[in-house]
Batch of 4 targets.
Target 1
Amino acid sequence: MTKPIFEGSGVAIVTPFTDSGVDYERLEQLVDFHINNGTDAIIICGSTGEASTMPDDEHLATIKCAIDAAAKRVPVIAGTGSNDTRHGVHLTREAVKLGADAVLVVTPYYNKCTPEGLFRHYGEYAKNSDAPIILYNVPSRTNVNISPDSLVRLAEYENIVAIKECNFGQVPEIYSKLGDRYTLYSGEDGLAVPMVSMGAKGVISVVANILPAHMSKMIHSYLDGDVKTARDMQVEIIPLVKALFCEVNPIPIKEAMNILGMNVGPCRLPLCEMSAANHKYLEDVLAKYDFSFINK
């Protein structure tokens, strides 16, 4: 296995929006907040960052903003996936030119490609990028699964180095067939410690947007051999995880951040504000946790 791009907690950072576009100043502040509070990597323009609503110029400007703000203090991983292979390859090339440390590439959505199409899709990314590539397997969003057999085929590309895995049930088979060929990252906050117990090196986290230190300590505790602390910290956040996914991500996490005074603006249509009942539920759950560090 190549050296992991990061170990611990990488935040799937939200994109702060105003009515006129991206709030780049606020994004810079969020990057500083994360680095100062222990986040191990910044994942910019992923699903949580609402990249699918962003035209290319804005998408790339947002990636550049995060890279500049991080200033090499932690890795910045740019979301460049698309259901149009040529488009995704273009975004990848441009993100690498801007200085992204790696790219995160989701499976093609809507097209519902075959395993052969998936192999060729990722092959084009691999052949057109010198940067490390993290595959992103999230069948609940894309209706396409990267099977262990597909991962075996994709292992021929040396720069495909990792996978953000949301299909926990196939992780044992991945290790059975591939060992440590890929670095695994959990794509599920509620299963982060179980995934690390199976050999993953970290989590790409939504919860880290509001609990960065907790998520990083939780993962590093397990990696350092303190299983009880990691387990207890995982159990502690389960009510919060449920609240933050009571509606489609990133609606609840943005609502939570605004409730906590982090001022990240609204989601873009077709995502909208939470229902009144779920907003109240989220407020009640947030009140059970200590967020006093946010405004210090």
Note: Strands lie at 8-12, 17-18, 21-22, 41-44, 76-79, 102-106, 133-137, 160-165, 183-186, 202-205.
Target 2
Amino acid sequence: MSAITSSRGPRPARLVLHGFLIVMALVWIFPLFWAIYSSLRPISDTIQNGYLSWPSGGLSLVNYQTVWSQADLPYYYANTLVIAVPAVILTLLLASMVAFACTQFSWRFNLATLMIFTAGNLLPPQVIIVPLYRIYLNTPIPVWSSIDIGQFSFPIFSDRGLLYDQYIGIMLIHIVFQTGFAAFVLSNYMKTISKEITESAIVDGAHVLRIWWNIVLPLCRPALAALGTLLFTFIYNDFFWALILISTGAKRPITSALNNLQGEFFVNNNLIAAGALLVAIPPVIAYMFLQKQFIAGLTLGSTKG
């Protein structure tokens, strides 16, 4: 019977499904290939022959060389890392503390606390632009020293005594908005960890912070890696908060560097395509290094319950 079924070939429904998936995959990756193709063409050839044509002079990397020097990408890469890396680390630490307290201990307001942190993600960022902008303009912070990365210098806190137009201000807003999401994900993961481990450590005299750092966090390593990859991508790709809360162009992240490539009367779309592809490299690299942990963090616990 199985031989007869196999000789008939795949069922029509499966063929339709595979055809649909292939078409959707092509539609999904078409913009990427189009951006790569455009980035390898000179704008003069595109204007002369149109976008749907093969360049007469062939493909080249001139746009990439131009955007690397014209947009000052190394400086903006460093700018973004100064903002994204500390924000991701602090978000994971704070979110893991909240998830640890809400899942490994039984107290009256643990569920309410987790709901409050999670509810913060339901608030559209645009709703709080005006009050947040005023808070940043009127919040004094200490003037502190700067850190040096190669030939670049970045003030840790403030060079003018205010929270506005500072790296620390962008870090804080990302930490506030991402902690709720991270706490929600980590709490679901920590629920799979038996409370008997925590109770046994307390009986042995271990401090709560020691249990969190030495026992729970190592068990959550796959989830932390998956979350770290997502948070780095979210913060790295942000343009909204940097545009609102930073006025100095030299302090903005790399997403702002693409905006600097636009002229007042003319936009070189091929140059912007090359810049966008260069900007996308760090998140891809981060995913490649954390690929195994990322997939493990997403799939662990999927078969439990």
Note: DSSP finds 16 helices and two strands in the chain.
Target 3
Amino acid sequence: MENIRVSPIALDAPDGDEAAPRRVPTFCLDRKALPAAEQFLLARYTLHEQVYFHKTTRCAEAMIGRLLQTVATAASDAGSAPARTGLPAGHPLLRFFGEGGETVENYLALDDALILGSLDAMAKATDPVIAEMAARLRDRNLYKTLDLAEFGADKGRQASRRRKIEREFADEIGNGRVIRDDKAAIGIYAEIGGDEERMHKRLHILDGGTPKEISQLSALIKALEPKKAFLRFYFADKDDRDAARK
């Protein structure tokens, strides 16, 4: 806190605009706080790599996503929704996904405890996808993961494996028995600070009184600047996962 300062930085003018760059005040750090800033960003990067984007975490999230998408579809028919989802009429999930139910009040009724506490009921749903996903999540019988990083760091080899899996398991990907996850990517910044219009959201260090983005001053952070993408497939059937590995 003792090393936080406020200093203006220049934002690029919009394309085709000949006006001078805009200057926006933002938080900066004194140069002597550079090591602490490096550790801050390194810790954030490591947490995303090993916790938030861990294969088990992402697999469970993908399964929950498929479960809730199916519940949302079933909730559109109020008459059959309780039986199809296993949830009692008036359940917060049915209220939220039902017609006109996406209100702030209904949204705030949804939390982790509600979803976890509803899994046993949803495991008795007549909809087979809801019943299976809920039972698997309740019993921690998660889909089996195949991370393309297992085939090496070469992007060409990974792309070849991806095409092979997508070709051989096209039907399973279509019906949800195999889930493709290509949305996870980490770098120094996420969407905030990820474009020139939001440069003031990036981490700046005062260098001789002039604010500079940290990767200009730190070789460690510069090495983490390129986005690292994860590509994984989650298989309902372990034998399918093992076959895809061969």
Note: Residues 55-75 form the longest helix (21 residues).
Target 4
Amino acid sequence: MKFKLTLNSNEPVVGDVFYTVPTTEEIRKAEKIVIDLCNERITEVYKESGQEVQRIVRDCLNNEIEKMCATETAYYFLILKEIAELSQEEGYPIITHGNLPGSIISYLLGITGYEPLSVGVENYVPEPIWGTDINITIPDFTVGIAQQIRPLIHERLDAKYSDVACVNDIFKQIPLIDVKTCEILGTLSKETGKQPLISDFNSAVYNHVARNFNQRKSMSNLNNQNFFVTRDEFFKNLVCHNVPADVALDIVKKGVRSTGAKREKYIKTLDEYNVPEYIKNYFSDVTHLWVSADCVGRLLHKCYMAWYHENFPTEFEMLNQLKNE
């Protein structure tokens, strides 16, 4: 397998990683590796949770694995796992964008620290990360990194996968974005010898950041005083009002960005499924919706920055001054 990293260009700085497509046999091997790693991690993470909780978690994982195999994306996960481990070894965090951090595979492989099941497995409702059972799509594999680890990525990946057979001259792409916050958090960690943990935040902050976006709400209590914070919440509400999953996903991904005649067509679709008037009014106004897991990741990084600012103000201010010079 061969890897290429494109040169950094305009802001925001992007230098994507490309890799040659492995053979079908290698793809099947990669899928087995991901499955084995995830099952091993489930046993470790949820060993105190009881058999019923483990069963629910495995059902969620198996559903994702089925879609991962259908989209042949196992190597995406394995490559990002290596980049995440490399970043951690060098003392820098990464941040996953889009819907990828909502994947339980990403959590079990250590690509993200955000646990999709943090709301509690008994209340877990899968987000449309992989589209729907009828129309399966590939998650957004965009990842933000500290620029300091970029020169090390090629060497790490080449050492790990250079012996993998591949289909020559065909490349797949994983977007890597240089993120200043990742660089600053890593530098503060080195300067202070400390790293923030979610337990460092009081319960109010934790509940807001790590739970609020995934909180399961009673659909019967929603009215015109409520609004939908994220794409996933709006999607779940549409489905609960008998809108088919494929139709609901199209509305929250494409419909909210539509204008003119296309917008009117989506409104007619909502009429066809007899959704409440307040949902149609909301849809008429909304133009963009964030993914829940993406929001949580960004907010956690802001909380980590605030933690350093509060606990290590001298180092925080010195670093800011150096970055601004």
Note: Residues 24-45 form the longest helix (22 residues).
